[in-house]
Automatic annotation (TrEMBL):
Official protein name in the record: VWFA domain-containing protein
Keyword tRNA processing: no
Leader sequence segment: 1-23
Protein source organism: Rhodovibrio sodomensis
Keywords: Membrane, Signal, Transmembrane, Transmembrane helix
Pfam family, one: DUF1194
Tree of life domain: Bacteria
Limits of the VWFA domain: 29-182
Membrane-spanning ranges: 216-236
Keyword Protein transport: no
InterPro entries membership: DUF1194, VWF_A, vWFA_dom_sf
Amino acid sequence: MLKKFALSACMAFGLVAATGAQAAPVQTALSIVIDGSGSISSGDFEVQRDAYATVFADASVLKADGSVVINVVQFSSNAQIEQTAIRINNEADRATLIASINAMTQLNGSTAIGDGINLGRSDMDAFLAGLPAAEIATNFSKLIDVSTDAGNNAGASPVVATNDAVGGGYSAVNCLAVGAGNCSFMTGDGQVFSANSFADLQPVLENKVRTELGTIPVPATAALLGLGLIALGAVGRRRLAA
């Protein structure tokens, strides 16, 4: 009997190992829309690119458990997909995303924010349409994340693109303004984040992405308070047992 139980347990373990851990349902679809226009110097574009790669490499910011789908679009006079929508199920998926970001080369040209929003949305929606309903969380949200150092001056209207996205089920189009970046196209519940320059971008970007993905770290004081309460509870239980 014991041998049969052990054999069954080993078979079950082997099945789990072969198939991998079950992914969490998708909670957030995040479309990253990055400015690659000519108003950004080549050095600043590299700083921007490196900031995105660094933020998404942090496992405390982006969980690799299947709960997030991300795509990356770069816009200038037009827009192009840098990373088509990918569900971050594991570290290999994270590495794919970061490699795509690191491979970006600046488009240089005008600033077509609306085209970037529209392309990010269409690519994301095409991916999500292929997911079974059972893999979507009840608190699921779709977001578009724009970063820019200027105002729109080419392509589709970003106001119309934003309204269309919100009307199409997106919770918000958020905007990170770098320097003189203009986020006046935003409507609805979109949030504006600001960085004085590209040198100041990374911490602002991290805060923005944490806000969008719900991975805001617990402040140190709150964490210490929680540990203190746990310790007090343990002491109280010991006293009762005595």
